[in-house]
Amino acid sequence: MEGEYGYPLEVAMSALVKVGDMYGADRMIDIDNVHVDASTYSGIYDAGLEFCKRLSREKARFRVPTTLCISAIDYHAWQKLRVPTSFARKQIQLAKAYAQMGATPTWTCAPYQCSSGIRFGQNIAWGESNAIAFANSVVGARTNRYGDFLDVCAGLVGKAPRFGLYIDENRHGQVVFSLLEKAKSLRCTDYAAMGYCVGAIALQRIPVIEGVPLGASVDHLKSFAGAVATSGSVALFHMVGVTPEAKSTNEALGDTVAEERVSIGDEELRDTAIGLSTIQDGKADFVVLGCPHYSVEQIREVAALFKGRRVRRNVQVWIFTNRMVKRLAEDNGYVRTIEAAGGKVLSDTCPLHLPLKRWNFQTMATDSAKMAHYAPSLIKVETIFADTGGCLEYAIGKKDLVANWCWKISR
């Protein structure tokens, strides 16, 4: 902290110690992995860019494996997306700075689906709300919610202050949600609605969810994590029988008494799904899938539905993923099929960081609760939250788009 190891470690350790003091940490602990959320120029702007460039000039190096969250551009298609050259240049400068520091350019909000390599019980320091919730809850690794540049500091030092979710007793559940029989579903959109409903009630508390089907896939849990961390400040949830620290409700609660018990059925989930839309029906001119980033399995499903079909006129379909998944999808012909139908498969970025005003979109359809939550305020469009299949069937002209049709009470 006195600069004997150079500026990067001085400023990084200073920031971590201040945060530790603020939260009453008793000591520093070693961490094994970092995911940097301060990776997009449109999130950190010129001050953040200059900070990263200085770290790079001062020979800063990450001491643990460090991956990068989304970029503000698709590095291979930014011109086609109408990104201003001056803006793209600054994102490219940021990418170069992180590369010189030794970060892995994953450019994804879902690093757990592309070689993050984290494991149960491991101490890590991750940014990005859905990634934090997934790492804590599905993998059982341990991280607090890290804001921009604290993740960078932790990666440079290889340590983090010990407080919060690094401590066993702070990982116990506090409010129990019981999923009623009719609400048990296996669609990603349903998990997104469920997560948004849970987060809005749990807020900063740790939820325990009973009754989730044991066959929940990684994509289902990804949709839940993205939504629960959006409507609430949830960094850890326990799904009984699904997540590692919740073999039973009692284990998830740490043998304590729940502060509150809540039942969730079709009515609650339907109301949540409807509430995520700013309009209940309409003609969407923009379909967004992949928030969090789509997996190769999800892209395969889109390709299967689009095969031999065409996206209707005056509608754009953009699917977002990471570059590794896109390469796999290209190798399997899925990208070619989607593009032949008139859709786009984009990597590295997120629509919330793209210059969508240049496209003059009016209404977005999405299967993502997180995107439906942020899009109206951040990119000023009307939003319809609908089932994945509904979004795609609308895009190829087979169905009208209605927000609440996606929640089917009888299954």
Keywords, separated by commas or semicolons:
411 residues, alpha/beta, Aconitase, domain 3, 3 domains, four-stranded parallel sheet, 14 helices, disordered C terminus
* Main beta-sheet annotation: 5 strands, parallel
Poorly predicted residue ranges: 405-411
Structural class: alpha/beta
How many separate domains? Answer: 3
CATH architecture of the largest domain: 2-Layer Sandwich
Order of helices and strands: HEEHEHEHHEEHEHEHEHEHEHHEEHEH
The radius of gyration is 21 Å
The multimeric state of the shown protein is single chain
Order of strands, main sheet, comes to: 12-11-10-13-14
Calculate the terminal CA-CA distance, rounded to whole Å.
60 Å
Q: In total, how many beta strands?
A: 14
Q: Could you tell me the strand content as a percent range?
A: 5-15%
Helical percentage: 25-40%
CATH topology of the largest domain: Aconitase, domain 3
Overall pLDDT level: 94
Number of helices: 14
Please report the first level of CATH classification, the CATH class of the largest domain. Alpha Beta
Based on Cα principal axes, name the global outline.
Answer: globular
Kindly describe this structure.
The protein is α/β, with parallel strands linked by helices. The chain has three domains: 7-168, 2-Layer Sandwich (Aconitase, domain 3); 172-274, no CATH class; 276-406, Aconitase, domain 3 (2-Layer Sandwich). 38% of the residues lie in helices and 14% in strands. It contains 14 helices and 14 strands. The model is unreliable at 405-411 (pLDDT under 50).
